[in-house]
Amino acid sequence: MASKEELRKRKTYLQIAGFECSNCHKTTREDGTRSLLRCTRCRMSYYCSKSCQKADFSFHKQFCTAIEELSNEDEVWYSCNGKESEWNKRKIYHMQLLAAALDRDLTSYESNAWLNQPKCHVCFRTSRDLESRSALIPCPNCHVVFCCSNEHWEQHQSKHKSLCQTYQIMVQCEKIRYQGTSETLWAPEEWDESYIYPPLPKDWNSYLKWRKAPQFNQLDAICRVITNTLSVPLTILSALERFYSRNQLRSFDDLVVHLIGAGKYEVLALMSFEEIMHILPNIKTLQLILIGIELPSKTIGVSLQCCPRCTKANRKRIYSLHSTSYDEYSVSDDFITPQIVVGFNIDLNEETWNSSIEFLIEKELPCIFTSYSKEEANQNVKMLKDLGAKIIVGAKENKWGSTMPLVEPQETDKFYYNNYYRTLLKGKA
């Protein structure tokens, strides 16, 4: 599982932009200084003090050295000619060179820093590309969008004006997520005593009221971060109510969930799965089986801590990790038949998924797949229909999708949201 240290050290957009200390997140305003100190070697990390720079050095030094080597090679800094496509190609090329210099893959922190480095949103030049090495000019409100000149800001201003508020929300959400606050933030311990479920309430505001949450406004950054994590169990619960009757759901002693194509998003959300147990209080054991090639090494039957009330009732929440494809897992001795199969934010339009989907269809296992966009969801539905799946819900907006905006690193000024669309299927058409 991802460590708290890894989360703490992830570079936020404000750190990448040079408005927050790379070690302690302190801003120039908070520090009472005009500007932060910049690392003289890589020129990409900023610090509020020498002590913060020293504290961050062991974490930063390898990447710093690789960037310095890259910066000394003028031929690799070819012009992007004002084209976003060339900017994206050059970023990927540089990341390959950095990985070669490090003799390993870039970490998520390193990839994030390089993919989202400041550049002019009109001509796609970085400070390194400018003849005078002059600083880029940031937006005074969001601080994470730049232009290289006042003329380019005049060109970009009308487009950015409509998006600046979303950038500010994204920055606010990052502050909550990566500055010592837990990823889930608020996980209700109230049980559904009235046995209202199913169905779930009509929207996030109704849900938070039902679950006796603090008085959050759905538009607040803290509430948006909560939805990003709780979107996982609620998307599953919304699918369960489509596949099973109320009596069936209330009769489950054990619930087995397969999370296929799983990665960091699912691992970070593991603690929030207890919400399924609170809404279905008859469940004695919740088994979460994560299958995906991006996962750490195989881990079987690890118990997660439950709330005091669930612990007193001898309820168990267990997870297993299988660092493999679903194809291989489905024919292994470890396979356990699930009540539901879930794939969060998965692109099924790769041939490697075909045999897995055919297995799920043949076994008539209830499945839900989510997507970032309508286009991706429609492509998934087409692929599923081509394989003969019976679509129960096809490429529909998921009311339990995250409301926390995330920036698409490969497309300028484009945002996406986890689990925004959903598709349900079971068996053959």
Automatic annotation (TrEMBL):
Asked whether the UniProt record includes Zinc among its keywords, one would answer yes
Q: A single Gene Ontology molecular function, please?
A: zinc ion binding
**UniProt KW keywords:** Metal-binding, Zinc, Zinc-finger
> What is this protein identified as?
MYND-type domain-containing protein
Taxonomic classification, please? Eukaryota, Fungi, Fungi incertae sedis, Mucoromycota, Glomeromycotina
Q: Where is the MYND-type domain?
A: 21-64
Database matches in Pfam families? MSS51_C, zf-MYND
SUPFAM superfamilies hit by this protein: HIT/MYND zinc finger-like
Q: Which organism is it from?
A: Gigaspora rosea
Query: What highest taxon heads this organism's lineage?
Result: Eukaryota
